[in-house]
Structure formats: C-alpha cells, structure tokens
Amino acid sequence: MDDSSEPGTLREKAYASFTRHLLARDLRPGQFVSQRELVAFTGLPLGAIREIVPRLEAEGLLTTIPQRGMQIAHIDINLIREAFQFRLFMEREAVALFTVNAPDAELARLRREHEEMLAHALAQAATPEMEAKAQTIDWAMHDTFIDALDNEIIAKAYLVNSVKIRLIHQERFRIDGRVVPVMREHLTVIEAMESRNPQKAVEAISQHIDNARRLALQI
C-alpha cells in the first residue's frame, strides 16, 4: 500500500507545503485564509489541513480569530525581538561547538563557497539569480551549525524559528543589494572558526546576527 495516504505522512506534507508557500510569499503575513484555500494551495485533503492547524497555532505561524477565520502571523516588533533572541541563543552555542569539532575540510568548503560568491558579486552587477544563490548560501551556513549538533529537539525548534526569521528577512530586509556585506560578515565568522577559538567565533556570529536584527528593526 502507498504510504502517501497515511495520516501522519499527509500531515507532514501539508505542513511542509504550508511553510513552502509561506516562504514563497504565496501567503503573506497578516493575510486571512480559510482551510479550503489552504487545501487549494497545498493540493492536500481538508482533513490533513485541519490536523496541522493546531500545530501552526502552537508555533505562532497562524492564529484563529473568531468570526474572521485564520490569520497568517504578523511581522511585528515583538516577533522580531523574540525570533532573533532565540536565534542568538541557539547559534552561539552551536558555533562554539562547531569551531571545536568541525573537520578542516568542512571549514574549507564554507570558505571556498563564500569567497566564490563574494568574487562573483564584486565582479558584476547583482542579478536576481545571484541574489537567490547568495541567500541560499547564507541560510545554509546557519543551518549547518545547527545540523552539526545532531540534536533532533534543537533541530525542530530551530526549524520553526528559522521560518519566522526568513519571513522577517523577506518583509523587512531582503539580501537584495546586500550580497557583498553579507558574504564578508560570513567570512569573518568562518575566519574565527578557522582559528579554533570558540569565544572569537561566538563574538563574530553574535555581531552578524545583531546586524541582521537591527536592520529588521529599522523599518
């Protein structure tokens, strides 16, 4: 029997589809949406959508408002402060451990990837394709630190927060026009990790995250 029809699988597919559409800006912060509209977006059964609503509410991605329906989370000052504080707590510890434990080859890969992107950005005018690639590199480095912890509880909590962080990025300050400074900040973090000095690496990632937080709060 095809396991794609199993309730648990459908729930996970519905959740993944919801977050994918959210990050693709098909669903916008503050937008009201019905369960049937989510069925249309995801292509999954109404039952699966109903089952993920409590999870989305618990994670702060959705709010049910009586008489009006379901509302996608607002991007407000409180969300920005809380999401970045959570990110800072998680990534400081993750980077400290990564600095000590990461193989030299992994650090070399990160440096090569960022130097190539920086050189590309300095050599020509930014294009949407370049900025999309830079954004992927940006997010992937942060995910790498958390993945290296090999802790499922932390990974799941970080994933929920990363959806909020990425929504904040999209609404408040996209990487568009900022490829060079972002790559340089990342290279500062990588250089600190290459020194195998956890305190130096923590200071570098803290500065990078604080810069992003301040950009988000400016608007």
TrEMBL record:
A Pfam cross-reference name: FCD
Domain HTH gntR-type: 8-75
UniProt keyword terms in alphabetical order: DNA-binding, Transcription, Transcription regulation
PROSITE patterns from the UniProt entry: HTH_GNTR
InterPro entries per record: GntR_C (IPR011711), TF_FadR/GntR_C (IPR008920), Tscrpt_reg_HTH_GntR (IPR000524), WH-like_DNA-bd_sf (IPR036388), WH_DNA-bd_sf (IPR036390)
Transcription regulation in keyword set: yes
Signal peptide limits: none
GO molecular function: DNA binding; DNA-binding transcription factor activity
Record's protein name: GntR family transcriptional regulator
